[in-house]
Amino acid sequence: MKVHFGQIYIQPGVTFPFSFKFQHRMSEEITALVKPSQNFTQKYGDDWDLIFRISAKRDIIGNEIRGPSVFRKTKDVEFSIFLPFDIIQRDVSACQSATEFLLQGICSVLETLEIETSVIHGRKSALVESICSDPTMFEPKS
User: Distance between CA atoms of 81 and 6, rounded to whole angstroms?
Assistant: First the structure.
């Protein structure tokens, strides 16, 4: 099982500047840290991938998760994680806050699929620090 990330924003002016390199890095990191559960394999198969669509909304106080959407042709299971835009924007370190909310959402989804998340929790601080200190993880401001 590989884990992939993409972004889709549905509200005008509500976006985070995560770059393509951020999406690629998250895909590599999370894929390396998780193994499919027996529940996931029985439900979907051992050659299916997991896709997370990152988005954001105003006026929510925590993550909002939608899914799964199941795509049999491409063997993908997709979830959308809507991050709480207003709360993150008010934080002094919006990058850190957004990444932490995202990791929390990822773990929440994985737990519903009975996929072990303890390794992600153990690496969370180092991963957030590494991502937020790398300028290639974010699109330049226009």
Answer: 10
